[in-house]
Design goal:
5% strand, 40% helix, 329 residues, mainly alpha, elongated
């Protein structure tokens, strides 16, 4: 019995070894044939697997280009609706054959389409006469009637002799304030102020070069304060202070001699006494004295203050002949 079991176990062991050897031979043969096929085919190095998707290219549908809007504009259209406000130039919205740009001699300037010269400059197409008229009609309801009695420039200059000039600036900066906007200028004619001889002379001394003798205009410019309102009040204060100070007479002003006078005054000069002496040469004692005429005094002052010229000398000559009763030949 033991001999039979030993024989059976030996036969099973041999059968298992034969099966394993046959499988190994089959797998080794298959592996050898795969290597031969791989050597014949070129393999591409792929670091990551990408799933290839083949999609059909879509056809892009393009709308047809429409003609410019300017070709369809009516002649009597409302231009304020087409160009209501300031904007860059747009060639399709302007029905005008505009041209701008540098070209060679004899060649036409570039047209309005794709013209950078027309787009980079400011235009005033929004300020046409119809647009201005329409805007004026819109703001007319916020205005008051013009005051009666101020129909002409001479009338409102007589009622409002002081002119105030200020400036406002618009700028693209982080702050809306401009340091130049604080400056205030006040102008008026000196003839609109009431002076006597002493006050006028003192007032001109106080204002200095702010007075233009040729135009008779007095100008005050203030920019010391940081705000426009403060400079306006300061300018009015200067005008008021100079005007009232000119009527003040200091005690030392009474000691002013003829040599201290800025202009020649006939009434305070020796020439008046000389002229009176000539006119009253043959007058009897107790008789009223004859004074020189005002026209003679004016001609003497004009001759000395303005200098000798043909007009002043001729006028002085005529007044001397009248004063001495010399007949003109």
């Amino acid at each position: 019995m033991s001999a039979g079991l030993t024989r059976f176990w030996t036969q099973n062991t041999l059968r298992k070894q034969a099966g394993q050897s046959s499988l190994r031979v089959f797998s080794s043969q298959q592996q050898a044939s795969g290597e031969i096929e791989d050597e014949e085919e070129f393999r591409v190095l792929s670091l990551r697997t990408v799933k290839q998707q083949f999609q059909r290219r879509r056809d892009v549908r393009r709308d047809p280009v429409t003609p410019p809007r300017s070709n369809r504009m009516a002649v009597d259209q409302d231009w304020t609706a087409a160009w209501p406000g300031p904007r860059s130039f747009h060639p399709a919205s302007v029905p005008l054959p505009l041209r701008q740009g540098f070209t060679e001699r004899g060649a036409a300037a570039p047209s309005k389409f794709a013209n950078a010269e027309l787009m980079k400059i400011p235009n005033f197409l929004h300020l046409t006469p119809p647009a201005i008229r329409q805007q004026c009609e819109a703001i007319k309801k916020f205005c008051t009637p013009w005051p009666k009695g101020l129909e002409t420039e001479a009338k409102w200059q007589r009622h409002f002799p002081v002119e105030v000039i200020t400036t406002d600036y618009l700028q693209s900066l982080p702050t809306i304030r401009n340091p130049e906007a604080r400056r205030v200028t006040i102008t008026l004619k000196l003839s609109d102020l009431k002076f006597d001889a002493h006050a006028r002379d003192k007032f001109l001394r106080l204002v200095g070069d702010r007075y233009d003798k040729e135009t008779d205009i007095l100008t005050f410019v203030t920019d010391r304060c940081p705000l426009k309102k403060q400079n306006y009040d300061y300018a009015l204060y200067l005008l008021t202070a100079c005007y009232h100070e000119s009527f003040v007479t200091e005690p030392w002003e009474a000691t002013k001699s003829e040599a201290d006078m800025e202009v020649y005054l006939f009434e305070r000069n020796q020439s008046k006494l000389s002229a009176e002496g000539i006119l009253n040469w043959t007058a009897k004692e107790g008789a009223p004295k004859v004074a020189p005429s005002p026209t003679y005094a004016q001609s003497v002052e004009q001759l000395i203050n303005e200098g000798e010229n043909e007009y002043n000398l001729a006028k002085y000559k005529e007044e001397v002949k009248k004063m001495l009763n010399i007949a003109t030949q």
